[in-house]
């Protein structure tokens, strides 16, 4: 029998911004936690300002990225630089099980809300601080975003083609890597607190998490195998490992061939739409002339629809996947059947499909409860109903500029 979501009852004061931090707190919110996101009109979450914007119309509440990173959360507006901000922040901390931030180190301390102060207010609170370079070390105070983090973590040196400059992985890649480690650390800290009653501070560096993803390359270097170099889509262990053109504008398919049986099955399938080049007659060519082989195979795949070819190759036992674009993903029957997308109604953007969790709990199902909050939309409700502030107190804080 189903029970509540897995983080039901967990209370989170969410000071995170951009992507890495909000993705952590999104997992909590989408799984039952009450997550209160703190921003201000003077310093809103930067992702609100960068789009992509619904219908191409710019607006503080119209960013698609912000929406997807902040589903199921409540939103309040507090000017953290205001001299009286503590009158709201400290009651929030006392209420919370988790406080999350993703500023540069010492920003929370500058405001008077570092871990030492917060633990005095709430000894059992768990604080998760995510930054690019971490709290310690000579780079800890340097500004930067995921694009710099992924370069320093080594990704740029591995992505792209050997005869071209490094290619940037999609977006701020470490912003997507570090939340996986952050959620694991937070879950462990919650278990520890359940056993001991003890809170603690979790410090998370995006660059460190990125380096963890390159463990195999680091081990290879230390074992005398040399530096791993950019290789495009190729894999020297495979007979064919490529992204190949298909019919239509900018349509592609990823194909992997590892065995002679797969090679012959692939070539027989492709030969039904065109005459294979002589270079494809012998799988050994893949070893001594890989570029010629890839060009010759691409001339054959260009006669196929990507989705049709994907199905045909899979039936023949050859791993293949059409390269899907955004519109393909939204219409994908597999994702729809699995219930990956959640339609949520937003006051300004209307109903959009939000990404749900990529995992499925058998007994404690995830549940996206609401669209991302408009800036400060829940301020009065949170202060009145959650923190118990009188309406006169809320009005006073608004009049003096704290709630802005």
From TrEMBL:
This is Benzylsuccinate CoA-transferase BbsF subunit. The keyword Transferase applies. Coiled coil: none annotated. The lineage of its organism: Bacteria, Pseudomonadati, Pseudomonadota, Betaproteobacteria, Burkholderiales. Keywords: Transferase. It comes from the Bacteria. GO terms for molecular function: transferase activity. InterPro entries: CoA-transferase_III (IPR050509), CoA-Trfase_fam_III (IPR003673), CoA-Trfase_III_dom3_sf (IPR044855), CoA-Trfase_III_dom_1_sf (IPR023606). The keyword Electron transport does not apply.
